[in-house]
Design goal:
The complex is a heterodimer of chains A (88) and B (190). Chain A has 88 residues and is mostly helical. Helix content of chain A is 58%, strand content 0%. In chain A, 11% of the residues are buried. Chain B is mainly alpha-helical and 190 residues long. The chains are: A mainly alpha (88), B mainly alpha (190).
Chain lengths: 88, 190
Amino acid sequence: MDARQKEMLLRLMELQFAATELNLYLDTHPDDTRALQEFRMRSQELMSAKMEYERIYGPLLNFGLGMTGRTWQWIQDPWPWEVNWRRS
Amino acid sequence: MRRQLPGSHKPFRLIRDSDRELAREQARRRLRRQPPQAEDTPIDDELTSPAGRTGIQSIASTADRLARTASGSDCCRIDPGDLSAPTVLHQSSPDEGSMENRDKEASSLTQAAQSGSGWPFEGGEPEATHVASQTAPDTPSSLIFGELATAYVPCQMFGQTLSLRDALRTGTLFPELVRNVPLYQKPPGT
């Protein structure tokens, strides 16, 4: 796994975590317009980052949300527990 | 399903401080009484000659023997006068009743442990569970434990947010929720 792929995965995790946090906040503050606006922005960023990653490195999910190319790419990437996340 | 223990059918009764003080005073009076002297009859004679006695005499002599054998310690001393009348045997102070319930609970828990259905944690069932299971189901918990704790949690307001990288590292997007709890690490040697 090259440095760019690792950086993109890390960015995906950050965006997904932020979207989840805002999702939980909006569960108890559904009328907070600032939080709703930031949630929309982070969600769009997350969607764009996922599409960009899948365009370059293949699907993130095995079915439903990702497109399958001409070959079965699901098993080509390392699994999350196989990635050394420490910065070298 | 609520777990039932022996004695749970008994209604809950508040024991006030005045009742406890009265029970302590009665116990002090009993302890002040002198135990009977041991020179009257050899213990072996009473052990070998119960025939021909009435039930009350037998109880009194047994109490007398126990009092003589336990004359060195006040906690085991039994006054024969308390056992001379059969009705005395059926009276129980609050402390004696609780001891009886405690014995029943202990035997019940032992049976449950042997049958594999006991309390799953070490150290036995929590004391609060014991107390709650012995009370009537409709007893307010405030009567058992006193006033319960009440939490006042201020409502979160949306303000500054951490950067995405800091949020992922600290575990929250909101700086007011950062607790700096140390991350879990495996113990050394594992």
